[in-house]
Specification:
heterodimer, A: alpha/beta, Rossmann fold, two-stranded antiparallel sheet, 7 strands, globular, B: mainly alpha, 0% strand
Amino acid sequence: MTTVIDQSKTQVRTEAQQWIHMYRRMLMIRLFEEKVNDLYTRALMPGLAHLYIGEEAVAVGICEALTADDYITSTHRGHGHCLAKGAELDRMFAELLGKEAGYCKGKGGSMHIADPDTGNLGANAIVGGSAGIATGAAFSAKRLKTNQVAVCFFGDGAMGQGLLYEVMNMAALWKLPVIYVCENNLYNEYTHNSETLAGDIVTRAAGFGIPGETVDGQDVRKVYATAKTIVDRVRNGGGPAFLVCNTYRFHGHHVGDVNREYYRSKQEDTCGRPTAIRSR
Amino acid sequence: MWKTDRDPVKMMADWLTAEKLTDRAQLDGIRSEIESEIEKAVAFAIDSPYPSPDKVDQDIYA
């Protein structure tokens, strides 16, 4: 009896530690991004950066469901993906500041961070540009029987890129272990996606026979639970998957995008994505 | 509205404390630890050298 209770307590503790770990990772991304904004506004960082603030639960919930050697590909808004997959803060900052100690020896900057040691095949400044890379990684995993899966992160803007559909077609045909994760933050740069996307995002996957799901991208527990089920299925030969995470970009398109009244109302900019109106 | 009610970091903190899996003191401790890690990382980056000009054509693929 005592043993059972002890085991139960151990189980609870382990699970609590896992949730606290996820909280820590999300907060790390949040504070990292706030520091990036600070470095930019003080003119200490060259170039621009696209902040992930508000979307942390997506990267953390998904990456926690992966193993260390599973692959991810990232986007122009990629710092969160890198950190969630295990990148180090010092080499991240070094890359952003153009220093030799950075992940790309200071030559890539914010939008090109890759970290093969953690399975991160790289950010990509081209919207939807990493879809082919993730699908290729999944092809190699299947061919070499390594048991790895690949996650392709992209935003709702990438739903307008043809490459994504070409590789989804191949992934479905060849039953590749790849998960397409659409971070739907409502905005394609400076345009609300009600002006750019026809129909419903998640149903597009059905055209290829790829199972599609939608999850609340603000709730890390829901993202993690959904991702875990999908990753298990994909790893066990179930073929590709498509997951829409509904989220919201709290800041502008990039750190320099501070006057947003022309595309986002003052009310929305102060309080955030409306829950009912114009939600997709 | 999402910035006030749907902040993923705040939502998780609220849930963790409501479920008594942690308390405010531990969460504050986590924040301080991360802030200090970030300060160290930024200092490291600022103090690090730029790549030397003779390496400008290395590791370039496109």
